[in-house]
TrEMBL record:
It comes from the Bacteria. Residues 10-138 form the Glycosyltransferase 2-like domain. This is Glycosyltransferase family 2 protein. SUPFAM superfamilies: Nucleotide-diphospho-sugar transferases (SSF53448). InterPro entries: Glyco_trans_2-like, Glycosyltransf_2, Nucleotide-diphossugar_trans. PANTHER family: GLYCOSYLTRANSFERASE (PTHR43685), GLYCOSYLTRANSFERASE 2-LIKE DOMAIN-CONTAINING PROTEIN (PTHR43685:SF2).
Length: 337
């Protein structure tokens, strides 16, 4: 299986109330020679996301905009975009992010992959200010299911940087052969769930150090406002993968169980806090008396939150200076002359 920088890629963008950012996202995708299609699904926006998206058309005939009258969630929007496209490769772009020029050539030059991702540069300032990613020495590596799952377990006191944030290009033929699409019951962790299931079906997931994806860090990100119910759905979806017959090895099952318990612990803490918000400590005691198995997770979570709050220093400025990026993956920069 040879690589090709001329391969056709469809970029799918699920957007909700993204009128302020969608034009930049679309323009960055349309500037890429490897992009044959850009499919935007307006997921029931209350603003003019659809109109702004259509106005970003460059006249090349590659842009398609679909609108849902009611919000159906990112999974449903992405599935609709996949079905509306025909290209052999599928790439994801969040509506408030964008691509750096020349993103796809280094990925599509690689061989023997079903999913391939590059590095992500996180922007902590106004993205209208010019910024260029560092050049890294060429390196590619295979990401196993165990490494992927381990890399998605967040740890207190460390800046979030889960491997699940990566935005791989996916081979449509592999997805179709295994009947893989986004789980429309999920509104949190839908990317993680899809990539986990792909790896469970034997996907070859390659990662390269080249940085072509710009992720804009926003305090009001929709992904940061998930519901308690979303956590429950995520760990139950993961449990379904773990318990599927003849799908995972014992080692893979063990690490998936570890992540499943990690998410379930977050759910138990959030559920207890919801009970407190609605009925005070009496409601918490009632809640935990009905779910005694949740007590260790809740106690550990509360203690951890208190210790973290006590040790946390107030931030008086952006964690990364304007014009610079924080990279998800470590790489060896090419020395600039």
């Amino acid at each position: 299986m040879t690589g090709s920088a001329e391969a056709d890629v469809c970029i799918i963008i699920a957007a909700k109330d993204s009128g302020d950012t969608i034009a930049k996202a679309i323009a960055s995708a349309l500037q890429e020679k490897a992009v044959a299609e850009v499919v935007v699904v307006d997921d029931g926006s209350s603003d003019d996301t659809s109109g702004v998206a259509r106005a970003a058309d460059d006249g090349s005939g590659r842009l398609k905009v679909i609108r849902f009258d009611q919000n159906r969630g990112p999974s449903a929007a992405r599935n609709a975009a996949i079905e509306a496209s025909t290209s052999p490769f599928i790439g994801i772009l969040d509506a408030d992010d964008f691509f750096f020029p020349g993103r796809f050539a280094p990925m599509l030059a690689q061989v023997n992959w079903d999913l391939i991702a590059d590095n992500i540069g996180f922007i902590h300032h106004d993205p209208s200010e010019p910024v260029q990613p560092e050049r890294f020495h060429a390196r590619s590596r295979r990401l196993t299911l165990v490494e992927f799952v381990e890399g998605n377990i967040s740890r207190r006191g460390m800046r979030r940087g889960e491997i699940g944030f990566l935005k791989p290009v996916m081979r449509r033929e592999f997805l179709d052969r295994h009947g893989l699409r986004y789980n429309e019951g999920l509104r949190l962790g839908e990317d993680y769930d899809l990539y986990l299931r792909a790896l469970a079906h034997g996907a070859r997931y390659k990662v390269i150090d080249h940085c072509g994806y710009a992720a804009v860090v926003r305090a009001d990100s929709l992904s940061g406002r998930h519901r308690t119910e979303d956590l429950r759905r995520l760990y139950e979806a993961e449990r379904a993968v773990r318990l599927a017959p003849r799908l995972l090895t014992p080692e893979q099952k063990a690490v998936v169980l570890k992540h499943e318990r990690h998410i379930k612990g977050k759910y138990e803490l959030r559920a207890a806090l919801d009970a407190k918000a609605s009925g005070g400590m009496k409601a918490v005691f009632q809640h935990l008396s009905a779910r005694p198995a949740a007590i260790p997770a809740v106690a550990t979570g509360v203690l951890g939150d208190k210790l973290e709050a006590r040790m946390k220093k107030p931030e008086t400025e952006s964690p990364v200076p304007a014009g610079q990026l924080r990279y998800l993956l470590p790489g060896v920069p090419v020395a600039q002359k």
